[in-house]
Structures are given as structure tokens and as C-alpha cells.
Design a protein that fits this description.
By secondary structure, this protein is an all-alpha fold. The chain has one domain. Strands 1-2 form a two-stranded antiparallel sheet. One of its GO terms (molecular function) is oxidoreductase activity, acting on the CH-CH group of donors.
Length: about 270
Amino acid sequence: MVIMSVSSIFVFPPPPSLLVSAMSAISFASLALIGFLETKGKHLQYSKFWNNNNRRRKRPIRLSSKVGMLLIYTPAFLAGAASFWMFPYEGFRSFVVQSALTLHFFKRVSEVLFVHKYSGSVPLDSAIPISLSYFLSTATMLYAQHLTLGLPEPPIDLKYPGIVLFLIGIGGNFYHHYLLSKLRGNGRKEYNIPEGGLFGLVICPHYLFEILGFYGISFISQTIYAFSFTLGTTFYLFGRSIATRRWYLSKFEKFPQDVKAIIPFIL
């Protein structure tokens, strides 16, 4: 009761939708579970772990990493773009949520096309569920925001701090993705220890800033679903970061021991 009372200060009342309520629980639980499995060596097969557990698979259909990542991010981008047509201007808060989600996935698609350099592949049966997850979470977040129409605003407005946090997150995420892309210059395909930015403190600053960006969206949205998804994403990216640091430690003998996974000086 105390938790519900405190949360009511920061979030809209629970939506009149069993679907959105169920998706809030499902999104958090599934993402947290995947994050836990990442720490146990059971990885989603993309990026450094594109070939993980390949021996257990029977000739999966594989896509080039660029095509696979486009498949992962494009449906969520289209959901965000379509929301401006499905839910015409419903107030400044809703407009900013729509814009932030659309911009986030537009950035990801643009990075796939023009920034990232790939050397591996993505199994189709891994790309499809990840793509579906991004699409459903984006669509649900937008629908949950639509359901806040006519509801009383939360007593504490986090909208403007959320905009600042989102901009810091998306900017920091892009900058560290750019630094990672420079490691693959001149046609190199091998991995190297990244440098610059916050890479001297954590091995996954791009994940740290992605988390900040999603908390920014949650602050703008102030819906239960947005916070549930963001908290689940936090657990997932924490797990992925821990696994990534372990991968660097196993691959590079001179990997700096004081470089943490995702939170400087702590984790």
C-alpha cells in the first residue's frame, strides 16, 4: 500500500486496460529473466555473441548482421512514426513520448546503415523475437500513453527532467557507438579494446546511456508500463554488460581490471 501510495505521486493511475497491465508485468519479468540468463552465458545472438551456442543449433537461417539489425529496429521505428497518424496531437506530453520513441529507433536504424561496421551474422530465429519485442513494447508504450487522456496528471511532473535525461542518453549512446565503429576502420574485422569517452571507466557506456535515455522516456511518459519496461531493460542491459566484460577479460590478457561493466567504480 505504501509503495502504491508513493508511486501515485509520480505516475498516472493504472490504465483501464487489462492488456496494458498484463504487458507491464510481462515486459519487466521477461527482460529481467533474459538479463539474468546473460550473466549465465545464455546470450541473445547478436554483436559479440552472434555465434554463441551455435553447436546446439541445426543450421539456422542466418542474416548478415546489417540486415538482421535492420529487421530488429525498423518495425519499432515504424510503430513510432505511425503513432502520429493513429493518435494525432493529444497534448505536449504524448507528443514528446511519440517523438522520443520514434527518434530513438530512427537513430538505431541510421546507425545500422551509416555508423556500425559488422563482421558476423544474426540467426533469423533470434532476430524475429527481438524485433517483435521492440515493436510490441513501443506500441504498448504509445497505447498506454493514449489511455492517459482524461486522467488526472501525476502531482509531480517529471516531463521536463525527462526530456533532458533523454537527450543526454541518446547523445551519449550515439557518441559511444561512434567510438566503437572507429575500432573497425580500414576494413578490420577483429575486436579491440575500445578507448575514449567513458570506455576508460566502463566497457559498456553505450548501454549506460541507453538506460538513461529510457528513463528519460519514462519520466516524460509517467505511465506504469513505461517504468516497468525501463526497469526490465535496466536488468537486461546490466546482465549483457556483465557478460560483455567477461568476454573482454577472456579475449584480452591486458584488459584493465579496474574497468567496470556499466556503472563507473561500482559494477
